[in-house]
Design brief:
Blueprint lengths: L1 H20 L4 H17 L9 H7 L5 H15 L1 H21 L5 H19 L11 H6 L4 H30 L5 H28 L12 H35 L4 H28 L9
């Protein structure tokens, strides 16, 4: 049975590769050229009205809105396939994760999930300052508060990561027995706030210590050492923030008789305030960021 599942998944992936190959590289450029040629021959220019309603609502927020809109377009144009593939992987893996969950291994499973959410997934979603160094001079010249620029860079990537993680969480909750929808809503709320805190911290570290996204040579020991040090520093801060919010929520739950809702709200509030504080620090780091010293 497992052999049949493995062979089926590989055949499905091979079919997806051939299917997606038609929409990438030279075939897509040829298709666009033919489309423009037909529009010239018929003298009817192509009209693109994609996202008109979205832009109307998002651009209503001055300063913050246009940056969010730009990152959203970057996500739809350059990272849409990455997000879809990650969502498919999360949906496929969710039932297997739910079947293997056990109390004696819950610490290891949470550790693996934490590592995927804070290291592997952010490497695939470059929708913030890490992929926008060529726009730094323009951002510096904008009459917009630095914290709004930092927030605009973080919102889209945090939502994209949350969408992928919520796909896995929803699959686990659906595959598990006896789990209510209320806990799924609580998990969604905490996942959104967790990603807000993490990507605010990630961009803060990047603005303070800008570094190339890929190694310079085959064996770049400086890049490897910097990556390990940055990850452990960010992981320590994230664990401290999550532990503090959880401890305060549990203390309120144990020492009072107000029920679980105030405890959950207090834990979420501490996490959310931490994210806002990191956004403010990110704005200060952006203000002191020297464009002339960007590491290429």
């Amino acid at each position: 049975m497992w052999l049949a599942i493995g062979v089926g998944l590989n055949l499905l992936l091979i079919h997806a590769i051939f299917f997606l190959d038609r929409y990438s590289g030279e075939p897509s450029s040829v298709r666009r050229s033919l489309s423009s040629l037909r529009s010239r021959q018929t003298r009817h220019p192509a009209r693109h009205n994609h996202g008109a309603n979205w832009s109307r609502h998002i651009l209503a927020f001055p300063g913050f809105g246009p940056i969010v809109w730009r990152q959203l377009i970057n996500a739809l144009r350059g990272h849409d396939r990455v997000i879809v593939i990650w969502m498919i992987i999360a949906a496929i893996a969710a039932p297997f994760i739910a079947a293997s969950v056990s109390l004696d291994k819950v610490g290891m499973q949470l550790g693996i999930g934490f590592f995927v959410a804070t290291y592997i997934l952010p490497k695939a979603l470059n929708l913030d300052f890490r992929n926008d160094l060529n726009m730094m001079e323009i951002y510096k010249a904008l009459p917009v508060p630095p914290w709004q620029i930092c927030a605009g860079q973080i919102v889209v990537v945090a939502l994209a990561a949350s969408l992928i993680e919520l796909t896995a969480i929803s699959g686990i909750f659906l595959a598990a027995n006896g789990v209510s929808a209320w806990w799924l809503g609580v998990a969604a709320l905490f996942i959104l706030t967790f990603n807000l805190v993490f990507f605010a911290l990630d961009n803060l570290v990047f603005l303070l210590f800008p570094s190339p996204a890929v190694p310079v040579g085959r064996v770049d020991f400086e890049f490897i050492g910097r990556t390990i040090a940055e990850y452990f520093a960010k992981a320590t801060v994230m664990i401290a923030v999550v532990a503090a919010s959880t401890a305060v929520g549990l203390k309120l739950l144990v020492e009072t008789d107000q029920g679980i809702v105030p405890s959950v709200f207090l834990a979420w509030l501490i996490l959310f305030v931490s994210g806002l504080a990191l956004l403010g620090l990110g704005g200060l780091a952006f203000r002191r960021f020297d464009v002339s010293k960007i590491t290429a």
